[in-house]
Amino acid sequence: MRIGVDLGGTTVKAALCMEDGSIVQKKSVPTRKGDPDGLCADMKRLALELCSGNGIRPETVSGIGIGVPGSLDKQNCRLIFGTNLGMNNVCFGEVFRPEFVCGVRLENDANCAAIGEAAAGAARQARSMVMLTLGTGVGGGIVIDGKLYAGCNDIAGELGHMVIRQGGEPCNCGRRGCLEAYASASALVRFAERALSAGRESLLSAQRGRLNAKMICDAVDAGDVLAQELFAEYCENLSCGLANVINIFQPECIVLGGGLAGYGKKLLEPLRRLTDAQTFRSDRKNTEIRLAALGNDAGLIGAAVL
């Protein structure tokens, strides 16, 4: 048995998993931001409760993985800089001792989601895949020949920070024109608020200042002209990033996760059409764009199978 932990800015989730990643049971508690000792205690408590509730002796657990946002020292299982958690320089290597004797692995949360989808989700049969998570930002994970590609410094996969428009919108990373500045859920909302401030008429006007991506998608379905324009431009921007990924890696599939992926086929169909027109293709086999299959469990499963 394995244990996966997903440290989020709002919730700490933990799951007891089989060796293949299938979840036996999961538990969660609110994240104690800015309290590393409390956070570590919660992680250990959740792991022990999962074991006791399923008749598992902690010493028989074969591995524990932790998915976390921020910059990491994976070799020493240390969170270096965790803005969303309100804490820095936290070591997780000894958190589960002495009850658990297995190794503990730390990995970026987007990479964990990619590993989860590759192991037990939409890319289960693929040897090479790329995952993009479309949420507040644009996260990425790359799996090549069945293994996570981390690069020479263990931080590869920041696909949201490829530039798709030189000198374009400012990005939180400090660059301009990044994919994240155009294809995240927060970017879609920002463009909508900007259009409303400029005087555009829309069903969205009633939600001005409180918009989220789902409201915009609902307005697209309702035939709102501004929402349809914003969504069409969003798809064009995202397809540029997807085409770049395909032309560089030619993976078997790209898996889309995160909140905006919940729009389903209405997102997938225009993206496939727009992306196909920008990629190098063959007569034999080409990259397929798919929707994530594991939802919010992808990071948990990926952490467990690290």
What does the model show?
With 306 residues, the chain is of the alpha/beta class. It folds into two domains: 2-102, ATPase, nucleotide binding domain (Nucleotidyltransferase, domain 5, 2-Layer Sandwich), CATH 3.30.420.40; 126-292, Nucleotidyltransferase, domain 5 (2-Layer Sandwich). 32% of the residues lie in helices and 23% in strands. It is built from eight helices and 13 strands.
Major beta-sheet overview: 5 strands, mixed
CATH topology term of the largest domain: Nucleotidyltransferase, domain 5
CATH superfamily of the largest domain: ATPase, nucleotide binding domain
CATH architectural category of the largest domain: 2-Layer Sandwich
Q: Which descriptors would you attach to this protein?
A:
306 residues, alpha/beta, Nucleotidyltransferase, domain 5, five-stranded mixed sheet, globular
